[in-house]
Amino acid sequence: MLMDQIIQCTIVGIMMGSVYALIAFGFTLIHGVVRVVNFSHGMFVLMGTFLAIIFNRTLGLDPYLSLFIILPMMFVIGAILEKIFVQPILTAARINQFILTCGLMIFLENSMLIIFGGDFKGVTTWYTSKSLFFGNISVNCSLLFAFICTILAFMLVLFILYKTRLGKAMRAVADDKEAAAMLGTNVWNVYTLSFGLAVVLAGIAGAATASYWIVVPSDGRPIVIKAFTVAIFGGAGNLLGTILGGLALGLLENLSILFINPALSSALSLAVMIGIILLRPTGILGKKQ
Amino acid sequence: MGKRHIAIIGLCFIALGLPIFVRNVLLMNILIICYYYAYLALCWNLVGGYSGVLSLGHGIFYGIGAYTSAAFFALLGVTPWVGMFCGATLAAISGFLIGRVSFAFELKGFFFIVVGLALTQICGDVVKQIELLGATEGMTLPLKMGWDNIQFSSKEEYYFIILFMLFIAILISFLIERSKMGYNLMAIREDEDTAEASGVDTKGTKVLILTLSAFLTALGGSFYVQYVFFVDAESAFSTGLNINLILAVVIGGIGTIAGPILGAFFFVLVSELVRFLPMQSQVAAAVTRMIFALALMIVMIYFPRGIFRLGVGPGILKGILRRVS
User: Fold this and answer.
1) Looking at beta carbons, which residues of chain B come within 8 Å of A87?
2) How many helices (H) and strands (E) does chain A have?
3) Angle between helix B180-190 and helix B156-177 axes, rounded to 10 deg
4) Which residues in A lie closer than 8 A to residue B54 (C-beta atoms)?
5) Whole-prediction pTM value?
6) B296/A103 touch (CB, cutoff 8 Å), yes or no
7) Tell me: the pLDDT tens digits for B241-280?
8) pLDDT per residue over B276-310, tens digit each?
């Protein structure tokens, strides 16, 4: 019986972990290319979820179909916010950048609170409460679809990063922005496009899980803490590390509820994160300093 | 005696005499909350403003202060006068440990923020599991009015207590600004490596200021529990209060004395005024925070030293015009 539970929690952990990895990948992309720690990243995930809810309530669209409308919207929103708020402080002191992205987080959180109210909201579709059964193990259909969607999103990102000129420019700017600028890259446009892409990734994660969980606007803060945790588990700016970090967080959260009080499972993962910060600030895969 | 001294003395008299003229309970409450926010903003400013270490972990110290005095009073019957300082000492010890550990590991900027956020959430989650401390329901203080238990039915006593605390916080900020420690802190804020190279004990100074700030913040937490007779984990160990403080401090002018006070007054007054608008209180609070967050971003981009430095109206216009042209 315990064996079944462990397998069950491992499957859920891997699926949730992949969603965390997608959120954290956008976060580390901004950190690596634009060199800003984006506290508002969790809010973009919620924005994806809420947009999916709107399209579902008004047009009756399935969350996965509405992705095709949501993603361009998210890209434009991310790019505009980056142009207006993030670019002017890129040359300022680190503390000013932190305060600014904190401000962006509060701004987005409260705008969503005003628009959507403080009640829990979600999308209910025909597959929300459906599960596939394999013996004693069940897999929720919404979560399975979210997992598939996440894998597709990762393939899209890998394609953009390694097969397009934009991806090449992003990697060049992340490596050495002065050299990239000297060789004729428009660094400011690369910043905007990377921010937009990262926001799109957050939007995919948000919309794909819209039918799986219910959210309130203040959930953005715990989500951004999860993104920090994954980034720290995996070491910032490392694609493989981020994926492994996301899976590690998902597994840790879901397996720990078998052994300790479920209300303390996120505290446990945060405690592990603080331990990693203290012992290996470059992440599990990172080189020791 | 310059004009400045006369103005400060005049303000002191006005603050002391206000309760004679203000007989309205609602207005008194707003004044008390203004002072209370100004006090906490100054405490946060000690760390965030002078040393440039952005702390999102002040909820821990606040919560420790609030819970310790509440638990001592409700469970053991110890007077809050003792509980307050026990809580503050406990918060100072945790501030010292957090600072000692994180600065020893060279956790600059980002990592320190994450550690603060994570620890706040861990503390809140753990306290919610302790039945003795009321779990998720929170603790209500038994009512025993009088100076012994810092519980009063009228607002005047609270007014003078928080005014005194605010005065102490201003005095401490003033003394630190003009001491060697203050200069060391500002050197760290501007360029930590250079400060280190010039022989400043950067880690020691940062730990010391964090400890002091934790002590004072915890006293603020105890005061608020005595004021509302109630504490719960959701509001005590929260990042929300800390974020409000950052809004107030940054908009007023980070790293100054007048800035955080004016910023806090401004913040409280606007949030009270917004309540009169015809909407739900939850929405009204959200509108306030949204306006302030927008103001915070504009301040950060155009006037990183705060709006009260420039003389509010014309300064902003001039700044924007210069930026645009």
Assistant:
1) none
2) 11, 2
3) 80
4) 95, 98-99
5) 0.85
6) yes
7) 888 888 888 888 888 888 889 889 988 988 888 877 777 7
8) 777 777 788 888 888 888 988 888 888 777 776 65
Token pair for residue B280?
């739900």
Interface of B with A (CB under 8 A): 48, 52, 54, 101-102, 105, 107, 109-111, 113-115, 117-119, 121-122, 125-126, 128-129, 239, 243, 246-247, 250, 282-283, 286-287, 289-290, 292-294, 296-297, 300-301, 304
d(Cα B198, Cα B207) in Å, to the nearest integer?
19
Helix %, strand %, coil % for chain A, to 5?
75, 5, 20
Cβ density class B254-277: b for 16+ within 10 Å, e for less? bbbbebbbbbbbbbbeebbebeee
**Yes or no, beta carbons of A267 and B246 under 8 Å apart:** no
Contact B125 A263 (CB under 8 A): yes
Q: Is the ipTM of this complex over 0.90?
A: no
What pLDDT, on a 0 to 100 scale, did the predictor assign at position B312?
47
Please name the residue of chain A whose CA is at the shortest distance from the CA of residue B135: A263
Long-range (24+ apart) CB contacts under 8 A made by A157-160 are A157/A25, A157/A197, A157/A201, A158/A239, A160/A197
Cα–Cα distance measured from residue B244 to residue A24, given in angstroms and rounded to the nearest whole number: 26
